[in-house]
UniProtKB/TrEMBL annotation:
Reaction it catalyzes: NAD(+) + NADPH + H(+)(in) = NADH + NADP(+) + H(+)(out)
Family named by the database record: Belongs to the AlaDH/PNT family.
Higher taxonomy: Bacteria, Pseudomonadati, Pseudomonadota, Gammaproteobacteria, sulfur-oxidizing symbionts
One function term, GO molecular function aspect: proton-translocating NAD(P)+ transhydrogenase activity
Domain of life: Bacteria
Alanine dehydrogenase/pyridine nucleotide transhydrogenase NAD(H)-binding domain residues: 146-310
UniProt keyword terms in alphabetical order: NAD, NADP, Nucleotide-binding, Oxidoreductase, Translocase
One Gene Ontology cellular component annotation held by this UniProt entry: plasma membrane
Protein name: NAD(P) transhydrogenase subunit alpha part 1
Domain Alanine dehydrogenase/pyridine nucleotide transhydrogenase N-terminal residue range list: 4-137
Species of provenance: Solemya velum gill symbiont
Role of this protein: The transhydrogenation between NADH and NADP is coupled to respiration and ATP hydrolysis and functions as a proton pump across the membrane.
Length: 364
């Protein structure tokens, strides 16, 4: 069975779906691995390293004609044209905002497997790319904030005077939010956090951060561990109750998301106006409309003296480790997608395993 790995072409994407280490492991399992020349360069994995691992370096068309294509992002329309019928394409499919490529894949009888649909169950943890990549985003968000903030994050006592620890607020305590809290605590900031799912309070406190205790009058608990959209009244109430806490913050990191919905607005214009000059807002929901009303996707802007960072792809900013983790997630997934029959690797019936069953996309 041939695995094809293409160079990512979506704007700003520096990750790659397999590394030389993982490619070698795949070859050891009996696959032929074909990687598009130069696919790993932006993540510092070079052609000679892939060759040494036993990979065949090929052109894009050849990589796309494999039985199983591994990628980071959804394909371009031209890519789908080059794929073979009945092949399998695995990537983040980002199908909440599909651009027609998904329908095209299905028309060609190509099986799309969406990494964001891997269920959040213990057996699938090692394949959970949303978690591995969100973890990186949470870490990098704090590093970005500290680089933009013109003051210290920790308490700093020196012979030239002392600086108080920065007040850092994390909104949304999923995987990215928890890592942001942990990283900010390691850097010595005074951390406060809030999530619409009350069960996160214990996790926040166990990391040494303080819980922002507000009651919006309804639970934000949705299905599968995800949040659900709040009613308009609750949204309004949430903004009002959070506003004083947010206005006091030096740094805010927002990660609040609801699958396939616009990000909830947690920081309206009036709150930004009340914040201290030089404060920093890192909006990890920038790609979904932003948790701050003034965020501009893929831009860093200054509004009312506050620096608003709207990067939409933090994992790509750490492309080496992000690719290491993502490639390992894919390797683990591929293990359950295939079986050996008469010395040949063949695809299993994806309906027979709850992981592949959940991750397979059947309609656009
Ligand atoms: N294997 C596992 O069991 C496993 C692995 C990873 C994550 N999870 C769980 O999956 C769930 C989703 O995690 P995620 O990181 O993908 O979340 P996500 O990226 O979908 O959302 C980020 C956070 O934003 C919060 N949020 C949404 N609307 C909000 C609002 N109006 N105000 C404040 N916060 C708001 C959500 O509750 C969530 O915690 C969590 O319950 C997480 O613990 C389980």
């Amino acid at each position: 069975m041939k695995i094809g790995v293409i160079k990512e072409t979506r704007s700003g994407e520096s990750r790659v779906a397999t590394t030389p280490v993982i490619a070698k492991k795949l070859i050891g399992k009996g696959f032929t691995v074909q990687v598009e020349t130069g696919a790993g360069e932006a993540a510092h994995f070079h052609n000679d390293e892939y060759l040494e691992a036993g990979v065949e370096l090929v052109d894009r068309q050849t990589a796309l004609s494999a039985d199983l294509i591994l990628s980071v992002r959804r394909p371009l329309m031209d890519d789908v044209e080059m794929m073979a019928e009945k092949s399998v394409y695995v990537s983040h499919l980002e199908n909440c905002e599909d651009d027609g490529t998904l329908a095209k894949l299905l028309t060609k009888d190509i099986t799309p497997i969406a990494m964001e649909h891997i269920p959040r169950i213990s057996r699938a943890q090692s394949m959970d790319a949303l978690s591995s990549q969100s973890n990186i985003a949470g870490y990098r968000a704090v590093i970005e904030a500290s680089a933009r903030f013109r003051r210290f994050l920790p308490l700093m006592m020196t012979s030239a005077g002392s600086a108080k620890p920065a007040r850092l607020v994390v909104l949304g305590v999923g995987v990215a939010g928890l890592q942001a809290i942990a990283t900010a605590r390691r850097l010595g900031a005074d951390v406060y956090a809030y999530d619409v799912r009350p069960e996160t309070r214990e996790q926040v406190e166990s990391l040494g951060a303080k819980w922002i205790d507000i009651d919006v009058g309804e639970s934000g608990e949705g299905t599968g561990g995800y949040a659900k959209e709040l009613s308009d009244e609750a949204k309004q109430r949430q903004q009002e109750l959070l506003s004083d806490e947010l206005a006091k913050a030096h740094v805010i990191i927002t990660t609040a998301l609801i699958p396939c919905k616009p990000a909830p607005v947690l920081i309206p214009n009036e709150v930004v106006k009340r914040m201290r000059e030089g404060s920093v807002i890192i909006d990890l929901a920038a790609g979904n409309g932003g948790n701050c009303q003034l965020t501009e996707a893929d831009k860093v802007v200054e509004k009312h003296g506050v620096i608003l960072v709207g990067h939409t792809n933090y994992p790509s900013m750490m492309s080496t480790d992000a690719s290491n983790f993502y490639a390992q997630n894919l390797f683990n997934l591929v293990q359950i997608m295939v079986e050996e029959q008469e010395g040949q690797l063949v695809f299993r019936d994806f309906e027979e395993d709850e992981i592949t069953q959940a991750a397979q996309v059947r309609q656009a």
